[in-house]
Design a protein that fits this description.
Blueprint lengths: L3 E10 L2 E11 L3 E7 L5 H8 L7 E6 L2 E2 L4 H4 L2 E4 L11 H11 L5 H10 L13 H13 L5 E5 L7 H17 L3 E5 L3 H4 L5 E6 L2 E7 H7 E7 H8 L4 E7 L2 E7 L4 H10 L2 E4 L2 H9 L2
């Protein structure tokens, strides 16, 4: 089973710190959500992992081998990026053939099934594909790639709701059949939250959160009620967001709750609601 280790990776573009001392370990049988605002460093990290960019410092290891200029390591990774790297005059079926040449594990049978499910004509030229179907074309290549690591960068760009739902179902089904590392970088957090197992949040080039989604959502909760009682309950706690309307106040807390917290909430007659992943992301990445 494959393993990716990101060790103390930094990357600057002039005066801009795109990544600063980033360290991560990615393990198989998991779907990771790589989240961050525009310019946070998500795409830079994926490009360094796949040798499209060179880090200023640090290293990437794939199964203990350096990923830098290492064909064996890179052959284990498929990166679905925003750019199309195939000749635009090439037909979809020709692109599938050449992908198989570079990725021997490419599942041509499964690719054919996906072509039918997404209603993509294999005889169509890539240049003739709409934005949505260009995305579908790249999704099919990634899902059928047969490699142990797949990196998706904005994988649902231009897709309608039905095709997005179909992609999510196929991703879950594929992961249940093969022990893969899946990383999904997306802005549609609420939509994908239910399929993510771990969340990685980047802010200003630094990892500010990397935990199992279930654990994160157990820790994040919003407390609301009379402002004075809310302030009393949240005193000394990790409050990541507050809203006040007259005598009413709501505060989002991010930390574990113990039995004393539950008793305090009950005594103060405060309402508690779970915070969703998107709400947590917005609050954590606010300036």
């Amino acid at each position: 089973m494959s393993r990716i280790e990101v060790k103390n990776v930094s990357k600057n573009f002039g005066e801009t710190k795109a990544l600063h001392n980033v360290s991560l370990t990615l393990l198989p049988n998991k779907i990771y959500g790589l989240l961050g605002r525009n310019g946070a460093g998500k795409t830079t990290l994926l490009n360094i992992i796949t040798n499209k960019l060179l880090a200023d410092s640090g290293e990437i290891l794939v199964d203990g081998e350096t990923a830098l200029e290492n064909d064996n390591a890179q052959s284990k990774i498929f990166h679905m990026a925003d750019k199309n790297l195939y000749p635009v005059e090439m037909k979809v079926k020709e692109a599938l053939f050449w992908t198989k040449e570079f990725y021997p594990g490419f599942d041509m049978t499964y690719a054919g099934v996906l072509l039918e499910k997404f209603a993509l004509n294999p005889a169509k030229k890539i240049i003739k594909l709409s934005t949505g179907y260009n995305t579908i074309f790249k999704l099919i290549l990634a899902l059928a790639s047969g490699v142990p690591v797949i990196l998706f960068d904005e994988p649902v760009l231009g897709l309608d709701a039905n095709h997005r739902e179909l992609f999510y179902k196929e991703l879950i089904a594929r992961c249940s059949e093969q022990p893969q590392i899946i990383v999904v970088s997306t802005h549609l957090i609420a939509e994908i939250a239910n399929i993510l197992e771990e969340v990685i949040i980047i802010k200003n080039g630094e990892i500010i959160l990397a935990r199992p989604v279930e654990e994160v959502l157990q820790m994040a909760h919003t407390v609301s009620g009379e402002a004075g009682k809310v302030d009393q309950y949240t005193r000394g706690k990790n409050v990541i967001h507050e809203e006040t309307m007259g005598k009413y106040k709501a505060a989002t807390v991010y930390q574990k709750r113990d039995s004393a917290d539950k008793e305090a909430l009950s005594r103060a007659e405060l309402e508690i609601t779970p915070a969703g992943l998107q709400e947590l992301f917005i609050n954590l990445t606010n300036s």
